[in-house]
Design brief:
About 75% of the residues lie in helices and about 0% in strands. The protein has about 350 residues and is mainly α. It has one domain.
Length: about 350
């Protein structure tokens, strides 16, 4: 399938926002900078209501209904390969780092947690786990429901249920919540949700921007001490839709800017960056604390600038060494199709 440049740009910019969110989240949860907690929470909330909903929508942009059971079987194998091996790789790395970090890490590591990743993912790998499940469930449904608009309507009902009547079953709740955004990306492509100029995009951009600003103002006025949940967001989760509409109006316009090629390149490696970013920024933060560095500005400097550099370097190394390439880009080694 031919790559669409603004989609790669969107993935590149969005994964950078994911990275920024986790840098701030790590500093907040470290408990070392409590005087800045409200500032951390504001930044985290602003990023979190945007990046993951947009990522699911970008992932669903190319989704097409499947023809029959045979095509579904090939589809399952491909998605399991592309997402499953990085998922296992991250889980092992996360477990190893937690064990090595001991009391310096926020969550203690237990072997039982690693052995239970078939039902409960570790850390940020939940996105891969849920995305894989979405591909499998919607792929199967698409054999019987060919019309993507009907599929979208089906997921919209599930989304409403997840907001109003959240389920205690982890994967089912996540599927109901995030399948909607996956299909929203596909639906926006179906209706040709595109703008050719800033002037035409402003009819969506400005209302979305002011909606997000109003949400953040109201959220802050409520004195919230937490950010919107990705499990049970309640009616607050409606703001996720605004973020997707904003991104899909904005990204094709930003793709024409001078800095676009950089993020286009990062977008092609967004899955690898997602897998590597959390362990790397955690290690950087722990090392700084062990060295006795408590200045916030140094943590931000090394965490953001240093972290992004190390992640980019690590991705380059993984791409050059076949054994490492297998863990992040298994389809390149086994030859089971192109990267999503």
């Amino acid at each position: 399938m031919k790559r669409i440049e603004w989609i790669d740009f969107g993935k590149g910019l969005t994964i950078f926002l994911v990275f920024l969110g986790h840098v701030n989240l790590g500093l907040l949860q470290s408990g070392r900078f409590e005087v800045y907690n409200r500032g951390f929470l504001f930044i985290i909330e602003l990023l979190y209501i945007f990046h993951i909903p947009v990522f699911f929508a970008l992932s669903g942009y190319f989704f097409q209904p499947l023809a029959d059971g045979k095509s579904y079987w090939h589809y399952v194998k491909k998605k399991t390969l592309v997402l499953g091996i990085p998922y296992l790789f991250y889980s092992v790395i996360q477990f190893a780092l937690q064990r090595a970090g001991g009391s310096a890490v926020r969550d203690p590591a237990r072997l039982s947690d690693l052995l239970a990743i078939y039902k409960m993912p570790l850390g940020v790998s939940w996105y891969l786990y849920v995305l894989w499940a979405i591909y499998l469930v919607l792929g199967l449904l698409s054999i019987f429901i060919k019309n993507k608009k009907w599929l979208f309507a089906f997921t919209a009902i599930g989304f409403a249920a997840a907001l109003l009547f959240p389920l205690p079953i982890y994967l089912l709740q996540k599927l109901l919540l995030w399948s909607f955004f996956f299909m929203l990306g596909s639906f926006l492509r179906e209706i040709n949700y595109r703008f050719n100029s800033w002037k035409t995009a402003s009819c969506v951009f400005l209302p979305c921007f002011f909606s997000l600003a109003a949400f953040m103002w109201f959220w802050q006025k409520q004195g919230f001490t937490h950010y919107t949940s990705y499990d049970r967001p309640g009616l607050w989760g409606l703001i996720f839709m605004v973020s997707v509409l904003l991104a899909f109006a904005l990204y094709p316009m930003l793709d024409k800017t001078k800095f676009a090629p950089y993020f286009v390149a990062k977008g092609k490696d967004s899955l690898a960056i997602y897998i590597l970013h959390a362990p790397i920024i955690s290690v950087i933060r722990i090392v700084l604390f062990k060295l006795g560095i408590e200045a916030l500005w140094l943590h931000l400097l090394f965490g953001i600038a240093g972290g992004w550099f190390v992640i980019s370097l690590a991705v380059s190394i993984f791409k050059k060494i076949p054994l490492l390439t297998f863990f992040l880009y298994p389809q390149k080694i086994i030859g089971s199709g192109k990267r999503e």
